[in-house]
Amino acid sequence: MKYGVWLAGALLGGLLALAWFGGALNWNREAPYELVQSWGGPGTSDGRFNEPTGIAVGADEVFVSDARNRRIQVFDKQGRFLRAFNEGLERPMNLEWHDGRLYVADFFADQILVYQADGKLLHVIAPPDGLHNPGGVAVRPDGALLVADTYAHRVLLLGPDGKVLKAWGTPGETGSASGEFNYPADVTLAPDGGFYVADGYNDRVQQFDAQGNFVRKWGGPFGVNLHGPFKGWFATATSIAYGPNDKVFVADFYHDRVQKFCDHGGYITSFGAAAPDSATHTAIAVDVDSDGGVWVANYARHRVEQWRPSGAARGRS
Asked: Residue 44 maps to which CATH number?
């Protein structure tokens, strides 16, 4: 009997320690954000979506990957439909708005497509050995691209001509050690030239410095591919964005939420809309406005959402 009590206590202690190291016992340092507006719904007409998978915010417009409708839709920030385009698209995923251009990671076309704001296709970028279902892209100030090459389990630095300048991960092989990947889904740049990777099925974020050296990882205990619903843990990290005041936002797909962190991985808060039924899969993509507003592509509800810090809610929902 005493042994049984001791064993139960030891197991409980181990679980609490695991949760502590993974951030599960952290209190929210901020209140969860509030939903201030949303638009969309399932369908094929203008302003409707069929499983949106990416979002990017410019000064005045919101770009959305309407994946299964094989198009990009563009709205003003009040949700009014402006235009749509689809030249060259097969399955658009995470988006990047940079210097007046929209960069689209196309999952089925195995390439990065670059558009003018009006939808004119300017360039198609891929390395000589090709991409394998890329999920996300970020653009450096010098024009080089960081690409999350999802099914190749690697991150690439490409020149504007597609030449491979640097690579991280082992092509075709998953791994959970530092600098290895398991279906990386997206990448975002920090102002200092470093970058962060949403390491999808490793259920974590990896951070690298401006020279490409590994800095840290987080998500669950020690960032070693353990998933869970706790604070700071993930179940498939599908999108990542660097926001004002050095904050990092991550779409935690199977937990129907976006989590907010300090740039060194400290947990701050989380928020999201519940799934419309017993299934999950809501918050799949995230971007952050210059004023700190957070924009989310909600996969299961087929809609776009805008979130703001608690108390700042306005507009429609």
From this structure: 2.120.10.30
